[in-house]
Amino acid sequence: MKLILSMFVAAVLLSDVEAGHVVPTSPSETANSFVELFPAKELSLNAFTLCLRFATELKGKREVILFAYRTRDFDELNVWREKDGRLSLYLSGPGALFEVPELGPLANHVCLTWESLTGRTTMYVNGRSSASQIFQRGHRVRPGGKIILGQDPDNFLGDFQAEQSFVGEIFGVNMWDYVLPSVAIQLLSTGEDFSDANVLDWATSSLKVRRMEII
């Protein structure tokens, strides 16, 4: 699609990524590129387990968005690395923040679990769990949104900020609409493939890399 803007044209370039492959991300900060991930079912969730692998050389006091699910009006489900190095989960409001070891250029396996009934949420890094927190008890993740990797959409599908963009590689993104037991997450962290994810399955989910270029 091309949009004529005064004296130039902004072109949205789309490319498919084969399921199961590492997502190609920008080697530098950008507000013009993102990856959209298409789930097998709507994200209408009273519980979930979200797992992904990522590697980045970004250091210092810089926040980094890893996973964003946004509806037209709300940031429904976001996962961040905060400026102080903590990992965080946001569900349409204030976040749950977790102290974790410094995560660097070697790939790390990160999982989050949450259930509405109790509000219990737990962060796992390379199979090791944090202390659980009580967070957003009684909440529900609403359907009708878009899933974006590596950018924070401040509206439905855009308004990105380069200083929040992810630089590196994201892959192995899987999501279930229930809480996996700890032993299952530990097996996943070692590369064990034991269960098909029923919301997002990295082996089968469709991806599109979108790049906005001025031509």
UniProtKB/TrEMBL annotation:
CC cofactor note: Binds 2 calcium ions per subunit.
Subcellular location: Secreted
Keywords: Calcium, Disulfide bond, Metal-binding, Signal
Keyword Endoplasmic reticulum part of the UniProt annotation: no
Source domain of life: Eukaryota
Signal sequence range: 1-19
GO cellular component: extracellular region
Domain called Pentraxin (PTX): residue spans: 20-215
Cofactor(s) annotated in UniProt: Ca(2+)
UniProt keyword Heme, yes or no: no
GO MF annotations in UniProt: metal ion binding
PANTHER family: C-REACTIVE PROTEIN-RELATED
Family: Belongs to the pentraxin family.
Quaternary state and interactors: Homopentamer. Pentaxin (or pentraxin) have a discoid arrangement of 5 non-covalently bound subunits.
Name of the protein described by the UniProt record: Pentraxin family member
The species this protein was found in: Gadus morhua
